[in-house]
Amino acid sequence: MQINHTNVNNSVFSGYESAKRNAESIGAKLVSYAETEDMAASTVVSKSPKTLSELEEYIQDKYGVNQANKTIEGIPASISVSPAFLQKALDDPEKLQWLEENLEAMQSLNTGLFAGTLTSVSYSVDGEGNITMITSGTSDPDGRIARENAKRKEQERLREEKREKERLEQKKLEEQEQQKRAKQRLEKTGQQSEVESAQGSFRFISSGDSVKTLQLELTNALQSGASLEVRA
Asked: Which residue of 29, 58, 64, 151 sits 20 to 30 Å from the alpha carbon of 167, by its own alpha carbon?
């Protein structure tokens, strides 16, 4: 019986030490421990931070607040809490409990609920305790939407190139037609245009309803050399 009692005491002692170490690992203190054949029960009390710097250090170590290179479920993340609210949490245990509950909830994203893929997430708690969550990502995890958008943009580009090609061809035809009419007009109505030249200079006079037509008439007149002699 004595041996069995000793074994039981050793088991309780081992369980107590384990519970104590577990409490210390989370910044708490073990205040009671009880063990039966079926279960073990322990009570722990958190070591409450006394100063703002202690609280900032505590939530950084435990929840990754203001921690560089923090990730949540492998996703780059950031968590920040306003110093003004931290001071309120120091003065009010209920606010501190609320803060810890929400900081704990921030450690999981439940990404399986999202239809897309998250690439970053950030949480911020302002001085009044309002929480802002900002996430970035893509709603196209398999790339289907991206491929469709790329295909649509390529089709639009091809249509635009076709329209531009047709516009340039039409413009070329119009210019050729204008040049043809201007040449015919110059040949038939020599009195409408006058070209004078002397000592390497010339003067061209013409009238019409289109500047381009007048410019073409000048070009044709210069090219034909009709009544025009240019001297160096």
From this structure: 151
